[in-house]
Amino acid sequence: MTITLAFDSFKGSLTSEEVADAFQEGLLSALPHCTVNKVCIADGGEGTAEALVRTLHGEWCETTVSDPLGRDIKARYGIIKHEHTAIMEMASASGLPLLSPEERNPMKTTTYGTGQLIAHAISQGCRKFLIGIGGSATNDGGTGMLRALGYRFLDKDGQELTGGGEILGHIHRIDASQALPQLSECQFTVACDVDNPLYGPNGAAHVFAPQKGADAEMVALLDKGLKGYAEAIQRSLGKDIAHIHGAGAAGGMGAGMMAMLDARLEKGIDMILDAIHFDGIIKGSDLVVTGEGSIDCQTLMGKAPGGVLKRATAQGIPTIAIGGCIQWCKELQESNFKEIICINPDNLPETEAMQYDIAMKNVRHIGRQVATMILPGRL
């Protein structure tokens, strides 16, 4: 029997690798002769680069870039050398956690550091990019990132604009004449799990800018600026990206990447499973076990276990999910999961359940429990 384990992390408690190790230990204690395949996965958010670098046997590269306010910081990205692929999380260079609450101001913050990461990876021979764009501190439409790659944003007088979201409403023309020539050889895939357009009531500014430090006046200015940015893109490049699903992701970075880098936006879990060749990994498996910290109504809407279930079901492979807590809903009850199992006893306080030793013990116990379900053929 071959069993594939594909866990996301149990956030605040166990990494995806620790969950898999503990589950495997419990499973093999009752089924010592089965074959276990383990892969680290994520859903495009925090931990995406870690999971991909580990699963694809990549290495880390560190360089100095600008943080959202232009200060030098160290940021890293993964490289899969034999595939000339860079794996990045834009939050490592342009993320909200890099700023204190009082520093958050999307009129000023920029994605320039993310562009520096991309430029560095290009210099290392990378031509394929897998980028997670969650957790940004910015609302600059990706203009900072693009400036770091050689694009110039000009006002009506032909003067170059620099800065954060404050420049968007002043952009009249986009000049690509000095963009890195290697960009024409590059392919960008972006993990994007939001459907927001670039501007409007559901756009980047109204939905996301307040959590990045914008007050009501800033939101109005940023929204107007993003509309002007879309018009400048249409005028300079002949591309209408304003209302494409995901254009408003990461403060409009989705729009900038689609317009100027021909980026493809994908659901995070789909990008990751494709990158690790997950369909091939599970081929021939008798069972797939997946899971994350919380299993709930969102699980089937772009979360890692839902993506795993979809791929396994397509191959007719039964799938079990485990989680630290289960919030039952109609969607879960009617899903194709053979079993959905909570690793924790009902009376165990959450603070205890999340402790490393207790969580590892409980995952091992569930691994053995699943083995005892397999032995009598219950699955």
Written description of the protein model:
The chain has 379 residues and is of the alpha/beta class. The chain folds into two domains: 2-41 and 277-374, 3-Layer(aba) Sandwich (Rossmann fold), CATH 3.40.50.10350; 48-268, Glycerate kinase, domain 2, CATH 3.90.1510. The chain is 36% helix and 20% strand. The chain has 14 helices and 13 strands. The protein has helices at residues 16-30, 48-55, 91-94, 112-123, 143-148, 204-208, 216-237, 249-261, 268-275, 278-282, 304-314, 330-333, 350-353, 356-374, and strands spanning 2-7, 35-40, 59-66, 72-80, 85-89, 128-132, 152-154, 173-175, 187-191, 264-266, 287-295, 319-326, 339-342. Strands 3-4-5-6-9-10 form a six-stranded mixed beta sheet, with helices on both faces. A hairpin with a 4-residue loop joins β4 (72-80) and β5 (85-89). It starts with a strand and ends in a 5-residue tail after the last helix. The model has no long low-confidence stretch (mean pLDDT 94).
What's the helix and strand layout?
Blueprint: E1 2-7, H1 16-30, E2 35-40, H2 48-55, E3 59-66, E4 72-80, E5 85-89, H3 91-94, H4 112-123, E6 128-132, H5 143-148, E7 152-154, E8 173-175, E9 187-191, H6 204-208, H7 216-237, H8 249-261, E10 264-266, H9 268-275, H10 278-282, E11 287-295, H11 304-314, E12 319-326, H12 330-333, E13 339-342, H13 350-353, H14 356-374
Compose a concise summary of this entry.
The protein has 14 helices and 13 strands. The chain is an alpha/beta fold.
Query: What would you call the shape?
Result: elongated
Largest sheet: 6 strands, mixed
Radius of gyration: 22 Å
Give the overall pLDDT as a whole number.
94
How helical, in percent, are the residues?
25-40%
Q: Order of strands side by side in the largest beta sheet?
A: 3-4-5-6-9-10
Rounded to the nearest angstrom, the distance between the terminal CA atoms is: 13 Å
Find the CATH superfamily of the largest domain.
Answer: Glycerate kinase, domain 2
